[in-house]
Design goal:
Elements (H helix, E strand, L loop, with lengths): L11 E5 L5 H12 L6 E6 L1 H5 L3 H12 L3 E4 L7 H8 L4 E4 L9 H12 L3 E3 L7 H4 L6 H14 L5 E6 L2 E2 H4 L7 E2 L4 E5 L5 E5 L1 H13 L7 E4 L3 E4 H12 L4 E5 L1 H10 L4 H10 L12 H4 L7 H8 L7
Parallel strand pairs: 1-2, 1-4, 2-3, 4-5, 5-6, 6-11, 7-10, 9-13
Antiparallel strand pairs: 8-9, 10-12
């Protein structure tokens, strides 16, 4: 089972995490697995998550079990590479959905565990920007850590890998803490300039696309797959907000020098790292034409639809 060979297929799948992205991935894998002979979906969760009395966690656990997904108890942060490897080797595919909350060193630990286990197929947590286009030494050091993972995966041939580049989670662009869209004051703060672009995809769409990519024929192997819900400039975001919410939005540019200056004054501030990295406009946007979803005519949520579904109904904001 643990020999990748020339025909690695995903049948016995382990998903790491069941958070903002993990749940959509699990839902869609469970849906697609019904059409694949012998496919089973499993999820690794911390003991505290499984035993939690928190209503949201209990609801997720109920849904996971109702979907026929097996719960595997483990801890990505506390476990060693060897301990994780002993878990991973029971599966032919491991999909990382734990995100950056697990820590900057965890993606490399997981990759090492996957290779040590010699699993046939690995999808690392790389659901984000085009790290290679951005390059090393940028404002966000997590991106360098992701490049280290890519170099490790490319340095071997026993485990096939697939990376899914999604751009920014669409909802994140509208988070008050991020500061780009200020709904209360009807303002858009463009990172870099009003003409700087960003690619956005919803976690629900990423979950659906991930399931399609996992089971796609011919099998996708050792490839970076680009998807996109939408690619827009910050000026276009302001235009779309005005049209949907029927009120004017002011536009301000947060330039790269200004954002880099703010980061220099608070170098460990994660939000300032992200703002400065996206403001540079390199590797954070790509044309929807040629993406996996566009080539396969898979319906996707664009910015206009997201605003209509999530903001237009709350005009009192």
């Amino acid at each position: 089972m643990n020999d990748a060979g020339d025909a690695a297929k995903s049948r016995n799948i382990l998903v790491l995490g069941a958070g903002e992205l993990g749940m959509p991935v699990l839902r869609n894998l469970a849906r697609r697995a019904k059409k694949v002979n012998g496919a089973s979906i499993n999820v690794l969760l911390r003991p505290s998550a499984v035993a939690s009395d928190e209503p949201a966690k209990k609801r997720d656990i109920r849904e996971i079990r109702a979907l026929g997904i097996e719960v595997v108890v483990g801890d990505l942060v506390m476990s060693s590479v060897d301990e994780l490897s002993s878990v991973f080797e029971q599966y032919d595919t491991v999909i990382g959905c734990a995100g950056y909350a697990a820590g900057i060193d965890t993606p490399m630990k997981l990759a090492k565990a996957a290779l040590h286990a010699r699993i046939p197929r690995y999808f690392p947590w790389q659901f984000g920007v085009d790290f290679e286009a951005i390059g090393r030494g940028g404002p966000q050091d997590i991106f360098d850590a992701q490049l280290d993972v890519r170099e490790l995966l490319r340095s071997q041939s026993k485990t096939e890998w697939v990376i899914i580049s999604t751009g920014m989670f669409m909802s994140y662009l509208f988070e008050p803490e991020f500061g780009v869209v200020d709904l209360k004051n009807s303002a858009v703060h463009a990172l870099g300039s009003l003409d700087t672009a960003v690619t956005l995809t919803t976690p629900d769409d990423i979950g659906a696309l991930t399931a399609e990519i996992v089971f796609f024929e011919p099998t996708i192997r050792n490839e970076i797959v680009f998807v996109a819900g939408d690619t827009v400039t910050y000026g276009e975001v302001a235009d779309k907000l005005e049209a949907a919410l029927n009120r004017p939005f002011s536009r301000t540019e947060w330039t790269v020098p200004v954002l880099m200056g703010e980061l220099a004054r608070d170098p460990q501030n994660m939000m300032r790292k992200y703002r400065a990295a996206f403001a540079q406009g390199r590797g954070v946007a790509w044309d929807k034409a040629g993406t996996f979803n566009q080539r396969n005519a898979i319906p996707i949520t664009d910015v206009t639809a997201w605003i209509g579904a999530n903001l237009a109904a709350r005009r009192s904001i």
